[in-house]
Amino acid sequence: MEIIKKHTTTVGLTALVLSALLTSMSQVFYAKQVQEVPTFLFTGISFFITAIYFSFFARKRKQLNVWKGNIKNVVKLNAATVITFMGFYFALKYVESAIVSALEMGIGPLFVLIVAVFAKESIPRVQWAIALGTFIACTILIVAVISGKSAVQMDLTLPVIVALIASVGCGIGAVLCTIYSKRLSEAGWTTSMILANRYYGIILLSFSATFDIFFNYFSGNISWILAVTVIGVMLPMYLLQIGIQYCSSLIVMMSLCFVPIFTFFFQLFDPRLSWSPISFIGISLLFILGVCSLYLEKKSVSE
Q1: Per-residue pLDDT of the chain (303 residues; tens, 9 = 90+)
Q2: From CA 284, how far away is CA 137, in angstroms rounded?
Q3: For the chain, how long is the longest CA-to-CA vector?
Q4: Which superkingdom does the taxonomy of this entry point to (predicted)?
Q5: Which of 270, 265, 297 is nearest to 283 (CA)?
Q6: CA 123/CA 98 separation, integer angstroms
Q7: 3-state secondary structure string, the chain?
């Protein structure tokens, strides 16, 4: 039994790291493309295709009783998905991609612990230390943006402020997505079933916001949208769902701290961006805390 638990944890951690790698690659590419395309055009097409794809596999299982008692969790998961992804892709339009992902992933672990406190769960001191460390790292990154010392030189305008708030909101939404996905998984839902039913809200809102301009942008952008959908949405989300199934909520959120460091190095190939020492310090701190968290999880399973 212990050997099986070690194996499933290894599978979960590996899936989380691979998901982070693919996500970071797609973020850098998307951040460049979205400057000329409405954000919600991408989210509508991308998540519609993703939902259709996973629906095909979900229906093959024919499990009719899984909806009983789980409708509320599906609705909450859809709401959390809207907060997470629509806020995230909006923020990428105005803020450095590495900082957007860092703020999203960094605020998550602290919020997980706050939820655990309200649930009256026992929390080791080391987890509090790691979560507070991520909060400090996020503060450093926000200062980098506000002071104009991030990789993207920009003025502190209202859209930038909203983008920073959206980035933090993404972190809270990501935690809620993890919680409700885990509940569905524990209720017998497969990875495909969860991914097929979590995007109704984001699809509806995206198409409602872009129905009048949809065909103006569709033909000239469908090829890269499809590429990002497969490599940057479908595959990473599938791997992330596997990680959620086998790892704790805190570890899922901490492992996502790999995304900013990967994104930071991938974005060095983007000529629009310049080297930012402050961004590097904040993102590196998040990466170190993420590695520490994964090590502690692995150690606790071994014991």
Answers
A1: 555 556 677 788 888 888 888 888 887 777 777 666 777 888 888 889 888 888 887 776 555 556 777 889 999 999 999 998 888 888 877 877 777 877 777 777 777 777 777 777 777 777 788 878 877 887 887 777 777 666 666 667 888 888 888 888 888 888 888 889 888 888 888 888 888 899 999 999 988 988 888 777 777 778 888 888 888 888 888 888 788 778 776 677 667 777 777 877 777 777 766 677 887 888 888 778 877 776 776 666 555
A2: 9
A3: 58
A4: Bacteria
A5: 265
A6: 29
A7: CHHHHHHHHHHHHHHHHHHHHHHHHHHHHHHHHHHHCCHHHHHHHHHHHHHHHHHHHHHCCCCHHHHCCCHHHHHHHHHHHHHHHHHHHHHCCCCCHHHHHHHHHHHHHHHHHHHHHHCCCCCCHHHHHHHHHHHHHHHHHHHHHHCCCCCCCCCCCHHHHHHHHHHHHHHHHHHHHHHHHHHHHHCCCCHHHHHHHCCHHHHHHHHHHHCCCHHHHHHHHHHHHHHHHHHHHHHHHHHHHHHHHHCCHHHHHHHCCHHHHHHHHHHHHCCCCCCCHHHHHHHHHHHHHHHHHHHHHHHHHHC
User: What is the residue type of 123?
Assistant: I
228, 26 Cβ separation under 8 angstroms: yes
User: And the tokens for 241?
Assistant: 């769902």
Place of tokens 């290894």: 10
Tokens found for residue 276: 């930012």
Find tokens 């809102």 and name the residue. 205
Token representation of residue 250 = 């805190």
